[in-house]
Write a structure and sequence with these properties.
265 residues; alpha/beta; 2-enoyl-CoA Hydratase, Chain A, domain 1
Length: 265
Amino acid sequence: MNAPFLNGNYLETDLDGAVFIVTLPPPDEGGVTRRTLRQLSGVLRSINVDDEVRVLLLRGSPRAFCLGLNLDEFLEEDGLEELSHTLMDCFLAFNRLDVPFVASLEGPASGFGVTLLSHADMVISAPDVTLSAPFHALGVLPEAGSTLLLPRLMGYPRAFEFLCLGEPMDARQAHGCGLVSRINPCPDKEALHVARQLARLPPTLLKATRRLLRADRNGLDERITTEIQASHKRLKDPEIRKRIDRFSRLQMRNTMKRSMEEQHV
């Protein structure tokens, strides 16, 4: 597979032997857009038909793994139907990915950035990372099949607390409940090392083992679809849209504040 380099709220992609590396856009580009989701879905489908790619490594920027979707697109009523279908297509592509998926967290993850992690086979995190799921603050349902996957990873009580109260957890807590595999001060370096190890294993054996380990995920496609459809209905509610607008403005102010602080460091 050729690995194009793309930027401007696009993915950055690279190839390290049999490891396909995808870097998500930095947080100051406004969150993951429909365009980014479509590109990500295409990359995942391409990996499945390329025998030379044996492992996916997904990472973010040093400032953040991923702070969620571009909330402004949720407020575009004319494009809401397209956004829902694009989002669902991306999550289904992650569920159908046929190679191991390693995620590296050098910075915080929130919303979409966290639900992606429930699809990873291994998650390597920096010690100071925080994870949050502010879905209820936005007035929408959790996504990506996380209502099925997170209770199995964390146990029901912890998943309920995390998704419903929206309180952040640190890397140590995420490791303790099974969402993070390893904590390392150099997560990108460690994740690439792990991905290379996996890529050296016999591919048919690795895929067969992975399929057996994930056999309890039957029904995940249906759950992903149900979550998206339920949130789509809620997003038509004017009060929910006002809540998202307020959250988006607050998020923008916080991003600008962090950027100014970084410039003065």
